[in-house]
Amino acid sequence: MKKLLLLFALLCGVMLLAETPVCFAPGERVVFFGDSITHGGGYIFHIQMFEDLRYPGSGMVMLNAGISGDTAAGGCKRWGYEVLPMNPDRVFVMFGMNDVGISFYKTAEPTEEEQKKRQNNLTNYANNQKRLAEMILKEGKKLVLMTPTAYDQYGEVKADNKVAANEPGLANCAEIVRQLAAEKNLGLVELHKPYTEQLKAHPELHLCGQDRVHPQGAGHLLVAALILEAAGEDGMVAEVDIDVTSKEPAIMNRIDIVSRNARTSDATVPESTAKGFSFKYAPNALPFPVTPDYKTVEMLYPITEKLNREIIRVKGLPQGSYVLKADGVEIATATAEELAKGVNIAILATPSQKKAREAAVVKQKLHNAARLVRSVPYMNTVILNRKGNLDNMEECFQVLDKWLEEKANTSNYTYFQYQVKTYKELRPVMAEKQQEIEALRKQLAAFRPEPFVIAVEAK
Which residue of 30, 47, 159, 315 shows the fewest CB atoms closer than 10 Å? Predict the structure, then answer.
């Protein structure tokens, strides 16, 4: 126990010099490599949608290489035969949930035997994370490490509580990741600390669901937001600054407009800017869709301020209240003072927000399809571990049937049944399924902002 405490005291005392991840680049292929949290894939496709909407036509591709139940050791096995053939430019790695051995954290004070097992798992995790990093770097790929998400030892949910699985369990894994990132000067995304903070602050939201492990909808969006922030996204969709101030009171129809990441034209002042004006607004990007999960995350993390700003500022208006309209539809009311500070239309019911929500529907279809086909590489790992021949489909089915028989009395048997059934359905038609995924990917990437008229009218 003393050796373990000393080890992590030393790790915590090291000055972390991990490199800050850089923004995703046009045309970049990015693979997210991990366990069931990545297998689920929610956060990956939030990132894909963000990049497609914010940088239309950029061609960035986010790929899922998660496998349920996997560990850093399993990742070392899969790197060469599954992940490297995806031809990634950059790889984000997140393991830990299965490496730590949460069953050894049932109590805050472990037995001597449990402590040995904890220490052994942490040592293996550190060694395998390092080995995997070296394998990826050897191939000339950019590498970003992510500290693992948190285990919910704080909320009241159905699953039995492993009361020390997050602290000190996964917290120690996170420290190992930070140290490795510093040692090799790798990009680092900090997920564990902020996710733990939110589990403690909002246990009623059950961000890890009933099993205490897997992030739910809002949890995946929070993970995506933290990754995007770490990657340096500044969050600006567009900005428009309007100055209706005139030196000559009789000449009120002059509007000075300065726009960023947008174009403006056709400014119209019916009588005077004191009563109102309008202009055509053509943004170069779309905002992130405001969904129920988005509203939940806004309670936890400033997602709008960090990642979703589309600001209209109007200076020089007389005091009073004004109505903001988009294509003739009222979207907000604001005082002259509020308009001078700026109104964020990204989260309002504009034509752009409507289009973003349409994109969210396509994103969900893409997510569902991509998550489904992960059953094939998942079961392939089982087949390979049993020395099966992936080129012989019937042999693969036989190997899985035997494996399933052996799992009959396990708690995850129903889940394993589903995975084998899905594998048998998908394996013969994988080419067609991949074509469907690519079609959905192109559909999501095809969304473009369209011009609309913004009007400011005195109430």
Answer: 159
